[in-house]
Every structure is written in structure tokens, then in C-alpha cells.
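Now for a specimen:

…
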Amino acid sequence: MTGYGSWRKSTRSAGQDDSNCVECRSTWRKSTRSGAQNDSSCVEARQQHTGDFQVRDSKLGHDSPIFNLTTPDFKALLTSAE
């Protein structure tokens, strides 16, 4: 598990002086199987710049633990949830 989320630094940022650096945060995506209302069994996921994924419980928001999953583990999670 990690903190609230990870920031990604622009590849165009200078190596030593980060004063002109731009950072981006990945957006969480809610499961399409979640209802329009606040569904108590909703999961959110986002893909990292490494290609791996992070998953969290949407009803907890920023208080939710974040689980790091490799791509094969994420695909296995999706398959088992079907």
C-alpha cells in the first residue's frame, strides 16, 4: 500500500533544478458496474506510468488504502470479479 496517490514528473523537467517542473496525477476511474448512486461495493482504479495499477475503495476516498497491483494481478482481479 502507498499513500494517497502518486505524482508523475514531466519527462521534460530539468535533471537537477526542479523549479520549472510539471507534475501530473493519475485520475481514478470508478467501475462501470457501480450504480449512479453511492454504491457501497465500488472500486476505483488507475493505471500508473509504469503500466501497473492501483486500486482503492471509492467510498473511503482519500482515507482508503491504495493497493499496488502488477498488470497480471490486476487482470486476475478483473477476471475473478466477473
Q: What stands out?
A: Strands lie at 7-9, 23-25, 29-30, 43-47, 53-57, 67-69. The chain has one domain: 1-10+22-28+41-82.
